[in-house]
Amino acid sequence: MIEKMISESRMIAGSEIEGVVLKKLKENQDYRGSFTEVYNHRWNLDLNAVQWSYVKSEANVFRGLHFHKRHDEYFCLVSGHSQLGLKDMRPNSPTYLNWQLYDLHGEDLAALIFPRGLLHGWYFFTPSVHLQSVSESYVDYGKDDNWGVYWNDPDLGFPWSFTDPIISTRAGDFPDLDSFIQAIGDF
User: pLDDT tens digits, residue range 95-112?
Assistant: First the structure.
């Protein structure tokens, strides 16, 4: 079993959320460069990764807040600086409505793995690259499992450290938290 590795220097605000794992990654360096294992099935994570993506983001970009009922996710910042927020929306979870805020840096490699049923979004302070894995292929996403909440709804509780991010048109149309809760129902 993997030991739970949540560093207070990375989780900057919030409280525990069941099923979230922050895994410190070990960069092995020598005169040629470095090698870092970013995922291993022997880590016994609750993640059945079926798609891996390499994502570039410009500075001041916010991606999310997204929500999926069917798939788990993996996030690893490879370069840059990101703030990542999670909020537990699973009504039967002992950590229902708890939230977490992480500050991640590419030079301090770590992977954040989280289960379905969590609102999630990430902001990039600088041009950044991250690896992302999901347990359902993007081509299989359906409207019934591709939800969102407007990123700065005060009812979310996130103390974001930014105020005017660049967001997608779709994210700009996301509802507030109360409307979202009514729309998704129990799952």
Answer: 999 999 999 999 999 999
Residue with tokens 């359902």: 136
Q: What is the CATH number of domain 11-184?
A: 2.60.120.10
Phi, psi of 35, rounded to the nearest 5 degrees:
-135, 130
The pLDDT score that the predictor gives to residue 134 is 86
Going across the sheet that includes 147-148, the strands are 11-14, 99-105, 81-88, 118-124, 61-67, 147-148
SS3 15: coil
Cβ neighbour number for residue 58 with a 10 Å cutoff: 11
Domain extent listing, the chain: 11-184
Name residue, tokens 């974001």: 160
State mean pLDDT over 121-142: 88
When pLDDT is averaged across residues 132-139 and rounded to a whole number, the result is 82
| Residue 47: DSSP 8-state | -
